[in-house]
């Protein structure tokens, strides 16, 4: 199956350069370019991307807003922020919000490797159901089991079963390890 990239980029020239760089490494890469919040939201729901690339310089729809939407719809999909110019405070804010990386558009030669690394880090999450990802996010945010059960309208026992299955599928033996993994891939915002 080809690598599916959702690209939020308002510059057609930049989008062409980014697409060419990705296809230099994998000719089968599918890049869907969008330029607005509504098109981005629609693409997240209709075409499950493997990774999202977001231009930081979007005036009407920022990379931080895109990150928030991705975390809501597909929390394990990596987001890489691309920028023509970004200050270190904004770059840090993007990483804290869950971006895998922030790359300068002048130096996109590392883009394909960055995407490949992000996908490799997320392979264990492919074994989790959407509900298990929800439970994992709540656990990583520090919510108590009873609160998770109430939020999801399930029993405490159901949440405990999900946690057991998540830990088994992720190959970890304690909740602290789950939190580290979730934070490490941006499933929850880094503090």
Question: How would you characterize the overall build of this protein?
Answer:
The protein is 52% helix and 13% strand. A five-stranded parallel sheet has the order 2-1-3-4-5, sandwiched between helices. Helix 6 packs across helix 9 (175-184). It is elongated, with a radius of gyration of 17 Å. The model has no long low-confidence stretch (mean pLDDT 88). The protein has 191 residues and is of the alpha/beta class.
N-to-C terminal Cα separation, in Å?
Answer: 35 Å
**Count of extended strands:** 5
- The structure class reads alpha/beta
Please state the overall shape, judged from the principal axes of the Cα atoms.
elongated
Topology pattern, helix = H, strand = E: EHEHEHEHEHHHHH
Most strands sheet: 5 strands, parallel
Output the number of helix runs. Answer: 9
What share of residues are in beta strands?
A: 5-15%
Mean pLDDT across all amino acids: 88
Q: Helicity level, as a percent range?
A: 40-55%
Strand order of the largest sheet: 2-1-3-4-5
Uncertain segments of ≥5 residues (pLDDT<50)? Answer: none
Topology, element by element:
Layout: E1 4-8, H1 12-25, E2 30-34, H2 37-46, E3 51-55, H3 63-73, E4 79-83, H4 88-96, E5 101-104, H5 111-121, H6 130-140, H7 145-152, H8 156-170, H9 175-184
Parallel strand pairs: 1-2, 1-3, 3-4, 4-5
Helix pairs in contact: 2-3, 6-8, 6-9, 7-8
């Amino acid at each position: 199956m080809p690598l599916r990239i959702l690209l939020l980029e308002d510059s057609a020239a930049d989008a062409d350069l980014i697409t060419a760089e990705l296809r230099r490494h994998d000719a089968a890469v599918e890049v869907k370019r969008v330029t607005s919040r509504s098109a981005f939201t629609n693409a997240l729901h209709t075409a499950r991307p493997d990774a999202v690339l977001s231009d930081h310089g979007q005036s009407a729809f920022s990379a931080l807003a895109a990150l928030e939407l991705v975390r809501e719809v597909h929390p394990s999909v990596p987001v890489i922020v691309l920028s023509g110019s970004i200050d270190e405070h904004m770059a840090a804010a993007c990483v804290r919000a869950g971006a895998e990386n922030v790359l300068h558009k002048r130096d996109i030669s590392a883009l394909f490797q960055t995407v490949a690394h992000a996908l490799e880090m997320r392979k264990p999450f492919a074994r989790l159901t959407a509900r298990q990802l929800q439970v994992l996010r709540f656990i990583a945010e520090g919510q108590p089991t009873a609160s998770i059960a109430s939020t999801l309208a399930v029993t405490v026992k159901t949440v405990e079963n999900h946690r057991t299955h998540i830990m088994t599928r992720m190959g970890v033996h304690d909740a602290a390890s789950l939190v580290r993994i979730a934070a490490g891939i941006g499933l929850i915002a880094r503090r």
